[in-house]
Amino acid sequence: MRSSTAAALFLLLATVTLPLLASAQTAGTTSMPPPSPPATATNNSRLEKAYVALQALKRAITDDPKKLTHNWCGPDVCNYFGVFCAPALDDPCQRTVAGVDLNHGDLAGTLPEELGLLSDLAVFHLNSNRFSGSLPESLRSLHLLHEIDVSNNQLSGGFPSQFLCLPNLQYVDIRFNNFCGEVPAAIFDKKIDALFINNNHFEFTLPKTFTNSTASVINCIAGRPDQRPGEECIAFLHRPPVHCDAHGCFAPPPPAYAPPPPVY
Hints:
GO biological process, one term: cell wall organization
InterPro entries: Leu-rich_rpt, LRR_dom_sf, LRR_extensin-like_regulator, LRR_N_plant-typ
Protein name: Cell wall hydroxyproline-rich glycoprotein
Radius of gyration: 26 Å
Keywords: Cell wall, Cell wall biogenesis/degradation, Glycoprotein, Hydroxylation, Leucine-rich repeat, Repeat, Secreted, Signal
Organism: Eragrostis curvula
Largest sheet: 6 strands, mixed
C-alpha cells in the first residue's frame, strides 16, 4: 500500500512539475540571450597573440622545477599560472594579458622574441630565476609596459636599449645579472620612478643632466659616490608588490622616505 501511494505521489509530482520546468526553460530561452563564451585564444585576437607568446616562452624554458608552467596548455591563457588578464585600455569589451609574474620560480631558459606580442602587458616580473641570454629586441613594442623586474638572473648583453622606447615605463630592476658595456645617458632623462642597475658589469659616468632626473632611486648604485641614503633605497626595494586581479595590475606608490630622527 505504501509503495503504491509513493508511486502515485511521484507520478503526480512529475505530471505537475515537469511541464512547469519546461515552460520556465522555454520562457528563459526566449527572454534572455545565451551567455557569451569565456574569452580565450579561440575567440579573442589579443589572447590569440598572447597564446603564441606564452607558448613560445614555455618552449624556451628548459627547466621548471616548481612546475609553474604546468597548466600552460590550451587557449584559456587567462587561467595560466602567473598570467593576469584585464579589460584592454582601448577596448574594455576585450580581455587581454596585462601581467606576467613568475618571480622566484627557479626557471631556466631564454626569453623569446615572441614576447613582443604581449602588446598590452603592463607588468613583467621574472626575478630570481635562471634565465640567460639577452632581453629580446621585441620588448620595444610593449608601449604599455609600466614595470619590468628581471633581477637576479643570468641575463647578459649590453644595456637594454629597448627601455628607451617605452613611454610608460616607471620601474626597472635589472640588478644581479651579467649585463655589460656602457649605460646610455638618455636613460637618465626618462621619467622613471625607480631604476636599479647595480651588480652588473656596466661602465658609465653620470651625465651632467643627472641632477635633473626624475627617477626617485636612480642613484641607489652600490659602490658609486653621491648616492641616496641607504634607508631610502631600502624603502623602495621593499615597496609593496604589484597586485594583479581580474581588474588589472596595480602598482601601489612606493613608501615615502622618512629621514631618521636627529641624534642629540
